[in-house]
Design goal:
single chain, about 400 residues, mainly beta, five-stranded antiparallel β-sheet, 2 helices, globular
Length: about 400
C-alpha cells in the first residue's frame, strides 16, 4: 500500500461516486486511500478509493486476496448509502451451481450470511478508516432500505426500515457503533400523509397503498432524523437516536400529473426515471421532476423496463421544502424546458462524441443523424447539493 499522501491540490473537495464498486485484481490497485478489514472467516477485504474530479465518477475497488477455492463474489460490491462515509456491502459465497456466463446480478440465492457490511471513512489529509460490521443475521434488507447517520466523535448509526404484515407498522433495525451491535423494534406511522393527488388506477393500487422505499436521506439534528422516501407518495421520518420514539411521521412529496402518468399503466412503474430527491444547503429538501412529451412506443424501454417513448421535448421542475414538517410546505423553484436550453459548442461536441445527440437510423446513409437536446431520452434527474440550481440528468443513446 502507498504510504505517501498525494498533493492536497490534486484531490477533489467532493466527488461523484458510482453506486457499485469494482473487483480489484491485485495489490497494484492499492493507493493512499486503501485500507483493509477482516472477515469473520479470517480473510481480509481490501477497499481502495480512486478519486476523480467531477463530472468524472470516482470508483471504489474491492480486493479479497485470499478467498477459498469455492468462494466467489456473488454480486458486484455496492455502495449502500453515504453520509460522511460509505456503507459498503460485499457479497461473498459459494459458486452458484448454474452459471449463465454473465455477471450474477440477480439477488436469487443470496443470504444474509454472505453479506459483509463495511464502513469506509475518508477524511481529507488523513488515512482512511475501514471497519467491518457484525453480520445482521437473521435480519435481511435491501440496499435501498438502509440509511447511514454519522453523529460526531467517529460514531454512527445504521438504520433499516422494513414493512410488517400489519398496516402502518414497520420493523426498525438499528446498528449503533457505541455498543457495536444490532437491535430491532416496532414503529408505527403516526400521521397519515395527504391523500394521493390523482385517482389511483386498479393496476397501481398495490404499489401505492403501501410504502415502497426508493431511496433514503440523512437529515440529522438532535434526534438523529433519517427518512425513507417513496417518490410517488411520500417520506417517512424517524428520530433513530431517541430510544423512546416508536413513531414515524409521514410527509407527502409534491406531485403534478406528468404526461407519462396520465397513461393507463404509468403509475405502476418505479418513479426513479422521472423523479429525484436530495437534502441540499441549509437543510432543505429538494425534489426534481422530469416530464417528457412524446409518443408512446409499442414496446417498453429495454433498460428501465418502463414505458417506451419517442421524445419531442422534456421539462424539469424543482420544488423545495425548508420546514420538512408537512407536505403543504413545498414550493416550486424553477421550471425549464429542454427546448429552451442553449448549449455551447464544447458541450455539443462532447454530447455528439459520446452518442447522446446521435440518433441511429440504419436506413439512411451514415447510419446516424444529429438530434436536438430536447429529443434526447432524458431520465433519472438528481438535484445538485448546493444553491446553484444544478440538476444532473441521465441520457439514453
Amino acid at each position: 500500500m502507498a504510504t505517501t499522501p498525494p498533493d492536497a491540490s490534486t484531490i477533489p473537495s467532493w466527488i461523484l461516486l458510482d453506486s457499485e464498486g469494482y473487483i480489484g485484481d491485485s495489490s497494484d490497485d492499492y493507493n493512499y486511500n486503501t485500507n483493509l478489514a477482516w472477515r469473520r472467516e479470517g480473510q481480509p477485504i481490501v477497499v481502495t478509493l480512486r478519486p476523480a474530479h467531477p463530472p468524472t465518477p470516482s470508483h471504489l475497488l474491492v480486493h479479497c486476496p485470499f478467498l477459498g477455492p469455492d468462494q466467489v463474489f456473488r454480486h458486484r460490491p455496492s455502495i449502500v448509502c453515504t453520509a460522511e462515509g460509505f456503507l459498503l456491502r460485499v457479497v461473498i459465497g459459494a459458486q452458484p451451481r448454474r452459471s449463465t456466463g454473465t455477471w450474477p446480478s440477480s439477488p436469487r440465492g443470496i443470504t444474509t450470511e454472505m453479506c459483509n457490511y463495511l464502513i469506509y471513512t475518508l477524511i481529507r489529509n488523513e488515512s482512511p478508516s475501514l471497519k467491518m460490521l457484525p453480520n445482521p443475521h437473521p435480519r435481511f434488507f435491501w440496499d435501498h432500505e438502509v440509511v447511514l447517520l454519522p453523529h460526531g466523535d467517529c460514531q454512527f448509526t445504521v438504520a433499516a426500515l422494513l414493512p410488517t404484515t400489519k398496516h402502518n407498522e414497520f420493523d426498525l433495525h438499528l446498528f449503533r457503533s457505541a455498543n457495536w451491535g444490532w437491535s430491532s423494534r416496532k414503529v408505527l406511522l403516526e400521521s397519515l400523509q395527504d391523500p394521493f393527488p390523482v385517482p389511483i388506477p386498479v393496476h397501481a393500487s398495490y404499489r401505492l397503498s403501501q410504502h415502497v422505499t426508493i431511496t433514503t436521506i440523512t437529515l440529522g439534528g438532535a434526534g438523529g432524523t433519517v427518512s425513507w422516501v417513496e417518490l410517488w407518495s411520500g417520506i417517512l421520518l424517524c428520530d433513530v437516536l431517541r430510544d423512546d420514539d416508536n413513531k414515524l411521521r409521514g410527509v407527502s412529496v409534491p406531485l403534478s400529473v406528468p404526461k407519462r402518468l396520465s397513461l393507463p399503466d404509468g403509475l405502476k412503474y418505479c418513479p426513479k426515471p422521472f423523479r429525484g430527491i436530495a437534502i441540499v444547503e441549509n437543510n432543505r429538501l429538494k425534489v426534481v421532476e422530469l416530464d417528457a412529451d412524446g409518443d408512446r412506443l409499442t414496446e417498453n424501454d429495454p433498460e428501465t423496463r418502463g414505458l417506451g417513448f419517442r421524445i419531442h421535448d422534456w421539462t424539469l421542475t424543482t420544488y423545495t421544502n425548508s420546514k420538512i414538517g408537512s407536505g403543504h410546505d413545498w414550493e416550486i423553484n424553477c421550471t425549464v424546458k429542454a427546448s429552451d436550453i442553449t448549449i455551447d459548442e464544447a458541450a455539443r461536441s462532447a454530447l455528439l462524441s459520446c452518442g447522446l445527440l446521435r440518433e441511429q437510423q440504419n436506413d439512411k446513409p451514415g447510419g446516424a443523424t444529429e438530434r436536438k437536446l430536447q429529443n434526447m431520452d432524458a431520465c433519472q434527474p438528481v438535484p445538485g447539493l448546493d444553491d446553484r440550481g444544478i440538476v444532473n440528468v441521465g441520457g439514453a443513446k
